[in-house]
Write a structure and sequence with these properties.
Shape: globular
Distance between the termini: 44 Å
Number of strands: 12
Helix content: 10-25%
Strand order of the largest sheet: 1-2-5-4-3-6
C-alpha cells in the first residue's frame, strides 16, 4: 500500500528481457536500505525487490504487467517515480494507492497557467465513472486531484514543486502514464452495480 507521495525519481540503469517478462535495474539514493521482497511502487506499479546493492535495486515485471502498464516502454536512462510502501510511522499525506494500475492514459495537453501547469490526460471511455471532479487519481504513482473532467479526459493542476520533483518534468504531449483510480470509488461503483443488477425489472 502506498500514498502517492513520491520518495524520489530514479533512473533505469539496465533493462533486460527475461523469460516471461523483463528485469529492471533502477538507480536511486535509498537502494542500500531496501530488502529482498520489499514492495516499491515504480511509476505507480507495485513491484518486488529481487536484488539490490549500494546504488541500485532490481525488480522483475511479468508480461501481463508490461502489457497493462507503461513499464514496457521504459528505456535505459529513463526516469521513474519511486515510492516505498506505507508503514505505520508514515503519515498518509496523499491518498490510498494500491499500486495496481487500472489503465494507461495519454497526455494530450500541457498548459502553463500562472505558476502551475495544467496537464490533460485522455483515458479509455470504460473508466469514465471512476473520475470525479476534485477527486483523487494516481498518475504514474503521484497522488493528484482532478481539477476538471469531460468525457474521457481529465485535467490536473501541477504545482512547480511536484513538476520538478517527479518524472512529470520529463513528460511531453503524447507520452503515456499509468492511472490508478481511487480505490474507495471503485468499491462504491462495484457495490452500486451489484445492487442495480439485483433490482427486478418491469
Amino acid at each position: 500500500m502506498f500514498t502517492g507521495i513520491i520518495s524520489e525519481v530514479g533512473r533505469i540503469q539496465k533493462s533486460e528481457k527475461i523469460d516471461g517478462g523483463k528485469k529492471l535495474v533502477i538507480e536511486c539514493s535509498f537502494s542500500a536500505d531496501v530488502h529482498i521482497d520489499e514492495s516499491i511502487a515504480v511509476n505507480g506499479v507495485c513491484l518486488t525487490v529481487v536484488a539490490f546493492d549500494e546504488s541500485s535495486f532490481t525488480v522483475q515485471c511479468v508480461d501481463e504487467t508490461l502489457r497493462k502498464t507503461s513499464l514496457g516502454e521504459l528505456q535505459v536512462g529513463g526516469h521513474v517515480n519511486l515510492e516505498r510502501s506505507l508503514t505505520l510511522e508514515k503519515a498518509i499525506e496523499g491518498h490510498i494507492v494500491q499500486g495496481h494500475v487500472d489503465t494507461i492514459g495519454i497526455i494530450k495537453e500541457i498548459e502553463k497557467k500562472g505558476a502551475d501547469l495544467l496537464v490533460t490526460i485522455e483515458y479509455p471511455e470504460s473508466f469514465t465513472d471512476y473520475i470525479v471532479g476534485r477527486g483523487s487519481v494516481s498518475v504514474d504513482g503521484i497522488s493528484l486531484t482532478v481539477a476538471r473532467s469531460e468525457e474521457n479526459r481529465f485535467t490536473i493542476a501541477i504545482i512547480p514543486y511536484t513538476w520538478e520533483n517527479t518524472n512529470l518534468i520529463y513528460k511531453s504531449e503524447g507520452d503515456t502514464v499509468n492511472l490508478e483510480f481511487d480505490v474507495f470509488g471503485k468499491y462504491i461503483i462495484q457495490y452500486l452495480e451489484k445492487r442495480m443488477g439485483n433490482i427486478p425489472k418491469g
